[in-house]
Amino acid sequence: MMETRDCACGPTTVRDDAARWFVRLQEPPVSIAEQQRFDAWLDEHPQHREEFQLLQGLWSAADRLPAARLQALTQAPPARRARRPLLRYALAASVLAAALGLGLFSGLNHPAGYRAEFATAAGERKHVALPDGSVIDLNSRSRLQVRYEADRRLIELSGGEALFSVEHDTSRPFVVDTGNGRVTVTGTRFDVRRDVNQTRVAVEQGTVKVQGRDAAEHEFISLTAGLGTHVDAQGRVAAAYAVNPAELTAWRSGKLVFNNASLGAVAAEVSRYRDKPLTVANPSVANLRLTSVFKSDDTDALLKALPNILPVAVRTLADGSQEIISK
Fold first, then answer.
1. For 227, which of 38, 63, 102, 223 could close a Cys bridge (C-beta 3.0–4.6 Å)?
2. Domain end call among 246, 272, 304
3. 294-323 per-position pLDDT tens digit
């Protein structure tokens, strides 16, 4: 229950007071005495500061609303709003009042906790929509745990690969932990793949911060669109390098894209989509290079095509797995 108190202007709530202070502070100048009264009000009760910070977050969110939606909420002409600063201050009150009417405060004030776990089998892909509007696409043989808290959105990628399309929220960073490192964003689109010996990160849109397992807060690699990095088993982060995000995330459309890839890397990738692993007989076979595109749901076709592309053959072992050997 919201606390109430009486003032000279009659009964009011803490939220009403916070809204009045917020609108007043949008319109300078603010006298020293008035600033001191505001600071004293903030310090009277933890809830005062909480409500005011809530309004600041809501006002930032209002700046990102489509113009048509904002106009509908406030009935303020967008052209005049841009030209007349005083109208912006009135708009603040309108947006806050509209938010109260729409019940937006309940979700912003107490971000709901959320926990879930998702996994995919060999050859399976999964599309997951999260409560905040973020989306995760899981590749084959992947597993992750989701935990939303008041101050962060945590994803623990136990294994496999996922493409994250993150809804922007500066108050709750989105963190992907892979054991040997972590990726932190507030809103962007990026791919993370966790293998046994390393984690690979590739950014399609926005900016991400990549840190090793034991890195200090200031120790990180910043990646923007078209850049990637990897974190080794010891938690060391490589310098940023150029990547092709469309190629790396072609699995979302059921494609395996190999661009001058070693046959050893091809075998490891194909194994993720098969019940039995695909191996290579020796280093000389593993070092052969392949450039081609195949369907991830028909890896048998790839195995049939290989002897026509490279000097190799494919044999089936006693346990049902298959091995690439020299022809």
1. 223
2. 246
3. 999 999 999 999 999 999 999 999 999 999
